[in-house]
Design a protein that fits this description.
There is one protein chain. This protein is of the alpha/beta class. Helices cover 33% and strands 28% of the residues. It folds into two domains: 122 residues, Rossmann fold, CATH 3.40.50.720; 150 residues, Dihydrodipicolinate Reductase, domain 2. The chain is built from eight helices and 14 strands. The chain has a nine-stranded mixed β-sheet. A five-stranded parallel β-sheet has the order 2-1-3-4-5, with helices on both faces. Strand 4, helix 3 and strand 5 form a beta-alpha-beta unit. Helix 3 packs antiparallel against helix 8 and helix 6 crosses helix 8. The protein starts with 5 loop residues before the first strand and ends with a strand.
């Protein structure tokens, strides 16, 4: 494998695919080997021409494209959510184990400097054991997608952050859903064995964008708010953070995973855990009952 540049292919040239294209163009160690559109056939993948593949297509197609890459031992970065189906996610994780090549899920907010700072502060306070409660809110006017509900589209980010922060899945989930502003509002409530509670509110029918994560620890509250200039606060104190863009950090991590042969962060195990929780939330919303994990 060459040290530089890394030959990266991209499947999917929609809104988020364009974000990858703009970001990749700024990185000195990366070059485009190929860009594939909706007519792409997975069998066209060539291991000799690719050091890695980014899958930025609608989530219903993630599994088949990522599986094709793994079967050819091509490292893959999958846009969130990993899949929309728990069985597909588990099958993909099994392919990953057999392929023994790096595979990541782009849970972008895990790489945001403000979230990383929040997690570091919580760590200095004692880590998950010091957390009392978590509240997450996210939404905007749209997008209202035909292939992914607000739970799977917006909620995947918040679930990923809470699982990463707590280093564990909740033991129970309860979900509610209702129409809102031409879209949908979903509330999720997580319970942990140690008594920690987490609440997530996501909506794609709002008049403005929101994205925040608030963590109540033993003696202070730490807040990540992506919609204001002061994105990280500990109580009333503003904490300075790196100006790096999260997607740049995602791609750097993917390249380093290819270079080292090991996933550094947000691997398919983390992606599968997010799908397991989202599937339990979907079940809870449908049956209107608490679901145990």
């Amino acid at each position: 494998m060459p040290n530089s540049p890394f030959r990266i292919g991209l499947v999917g040239t929609g809104r988020w695919g364009q974000a990858y294209i703009r970001t990749l163009a700024t990185l000195p160690d990366v070059t485009f080997a190929a860009t594939y559109n909706s007519s792409f056939v997975p069998t066209d993948l060539d291991r000799d021409n690719l050091d890695g593949l980014i899958v930025a297509t609608p989530p219903s197609s993630h599994a088949v494209l990522a599986r094709a890459a793994l079967e050819r031992r091509i490292p893959v970065l999958i846009e969130k959510p990993m899949t929309l189906d728990l069985t597909e996610a588990r099958d993909l994780a099994e392919h990953f184990e057999r392929a023994d090549v790096p595979a990541m899920v782009d849970h972008t907010h895990l790489f945001h400097p403000a979230y990383e700072g929040l997690k570091a502060i919580v760590g200095t306070l004692g880590g998950p054991d010091t957390v009392k409660s978590i509240r997450a809110e996210a939404g905007n006017r749209g997008p209202v997608r035909s292939d992914a509900s607000v739970l799977w589209d917006w909620g995947a980010h918040d679930v990923a952050m809470i699982l990463d922060l707590m280093n564990a899945k909740p033991t129970s989930v309860r979900g509610y859903s209702e129409p809102a502003g031409g879209g949908e509002r979903v509330r999720l409530m997580f319970g942990y064995a140690n008594g920690v509670s987490a609440t997530i509110d996501v909506c794609n029918g709002l008049d403005r964008r929101i994205r925040s994560l608030s963590v109540d620890c033993s003696d202070k509250i730490v807040i990540y708010d992506d919609t204001v200039p002061e994105k990280l606060r500990s109580d009333s104190k503003v904490i300075s953070i790196s100006p790096d863009l999260p997607l740049t950090r995602v791609i750097f991590s993917f390249v380093e995973s290819i270079r080292s042969g090991h996933v550094l962060r947000s691997g398919l195990d983390a992606g599968l855990s997010v799908i397991e929780v989202l599937a339990a939330c979907q079940k809870s919303i449908a049956c209107r009952k608490t679901v145990m994990l």
